[in-house]
Design a protein that fits this description.
By secondary structure, the chain is α+β, with helices and mostly antiparallel strands. The protein is built from four helices and six strands.
Length: 143
């Protein structure tokens, strides 16, 4: 049973990521639990989508902020690891920061907790300083 659940969790993450990279958010919205806890560990002062939101409305709000800030060209899985009800994914991301028109590249890590085939908890992580430098919002370190 665990192997089947692990495969199902990996398949869910791959499918949502593939659609996300194509600009299709419907698979994500279909995969979330109504009471999901959605956290993007980005400083809210720089990233409007940063912080924790709850429920379907919170995810829609988060993704609206993400879509206003970025146009993704690539959201490619590098590695997905599952254990029980938790799945981790490492993704290569490329896109454009809409307000500045600058290209951005970053690795993104997502951690989901899944119950009954639905995402009940999300945490997203990436190198916020590197992204802010690429966007021209903070200076690159000298050296």
């Amino acid at each position: 049973m665990a192997d089947g659940a692990n495969r199902a969790h990996e398949t869910l993450m791959r499918g949502v990521a593939r659609a996300f990279g194509e600009g299709d958010l419907q698979p994500l919205f279909a995969a979330i639990d109504d009471n999901v806890i959605w956290t993007e560990t980005a400083p809210a002062g720089f990233f409007r989508f940063g912080g924790t939101r709850r429920g379907r409305t919170g995810v829609i709000e988060t993704e609206a902020y993400v879509s206003a800030a970025y146009l993704f060209r690539r959201f490619e899985p590098v590695e997905i690891v599952t254990s029980g009800d938790v799945v981790w994914g490492l993704f290569r991301v490329e896109g454009t920061h809409r307000p500045t028109g600058r290209a951005i590249k970053a690795d993104y890590v997502a951690r989901w907790r899944i119950r009954n085939g639905k995402i009940i908890e999300h945490q997203g992580f990436y190198d916020t300083a590197a992204v802010l430098i690429q966007q021209g919002q903070i200076p690159a370190p000298a050296g």
